[in-house]
Write the structure tokens for this entry.
Amino acid sequence: MRFLPVAMGPHPILERANYNGVWLAHESFRSIAMFRSALILALLAAFAPQANSARADDPTLRTLTSKHLTLVTDLPPDAEVDTLPGYFDQAFPQWCAYFGVDPAQHADWHVRGFLMRSRERFEAAGLISKDVPEFATGYALEGNFWLFDQTSAYFRRNLMLHEGTHVFAMTVLGGTGPAWYGEGTAELLGTHRLDGDKLLLNVIPANRDDVPKWGRIEAVQGDFAKRKALTIEKLFNLSGTLHGTVEQYGWCWAAAAFFEHHPRYRDRFHALARQVNQADFQDRVVAAFAGDRQTLDEDWQLFIANLDYGFDFERMNVEHKSGSPLGAGPAQVPVAADRGWQSSGVAVEAGKKYTIRARGRYQVAGGERPWLSEPGGITIEYHAGQPLGMLLAAVRNDDDTASARFSGLIQPIAVGLDATLEPKESGTVYFRINDSAGRLADNSGAAEVEVSASP
Ligand SMILES: [Zn+2]
């Protein structure tokens, strides 16, 4: 089995995190204000030359202007670069909508951005203070951001929108929140799709090819496979780093995407966006989810264990339903092909043996020539180490405390057409059809599964 028990424990990379201006600034609300005012004074002095006059100093710098952004760059004319300010303008009303701000009240909001191939050139032109620390990709401070150029047009735009979210939070909202939230929402609102020229923020990318060099999903999948998954608790306590790794950004994106899109949590999470400038913001987050925190901790494990492009939050949402012991005969259980884990309603006991038999035909891929599968799966196409379409089982401990620590639903058992189940732990049997969490929408039909006590 490829599914490995995951140690939701300390993350060595994050634990030796060093500090970054942006993440450090997020760390504590009180320190951010002090840190910022010191730096702003230094920057005001450094910023005496206006962006436009930079051209006179260095004719190779170009200034691109839109309603909400003045972007100075040392990159040559290029359609992907020159359209950035227009996309920044399209992001503005979406940031306003996300954080519950009236755009009319901030109609004059304007940001200065610097897209750099060579930092030295911007320093020579007086467009970046020596006080701005060395940083890896992007840095935001009050009404300004600096970006290093990226090799992918998608990721360059993503980075601009990420730093733009920080600037919006700092200047319009008056705070970015703790590191996980500030970086998470910047990742969430930096991750976008273009429909023609129309920019759409806050999307779960459907395919890897749509988001070249983004890599957040692979980074989290990789950490999970290496048993370095982060718990929500660890994420809440994340501190910043100046040279954030793709894994760190990946975890922050994953946390924000989980809260933002999960049907159980999205309304509460979204309501918190309007409170980000409150000094006790993190306490408010904890309080908002205190009532069902165990369910949340388990849902988080399920999300991370199954994370994939196009992750389908609705179809992957698990309805917990404790089972009853088998009666005299076997239990008949339909298992829908287009959903994640489904309770069988059958309770099983550790140490006993059960027989599972399955039949039926169902669709596991749509399109012009849909793929049909039986519970044995399609052995020319694999997902997560098992044939696509194969029937999987798992035993979930009905004690929520235990499942919050370690859910049985992240340890699937391959069943196929038939299997003998010998549970190590008592609980309820759940079934699902093996497929990516991002490719359930084109499935249909169900397997018919029979569970009986073995003699
Ligand atoms: Zn950031």
Observations:
- The chain has 17 helices and 19 strands.
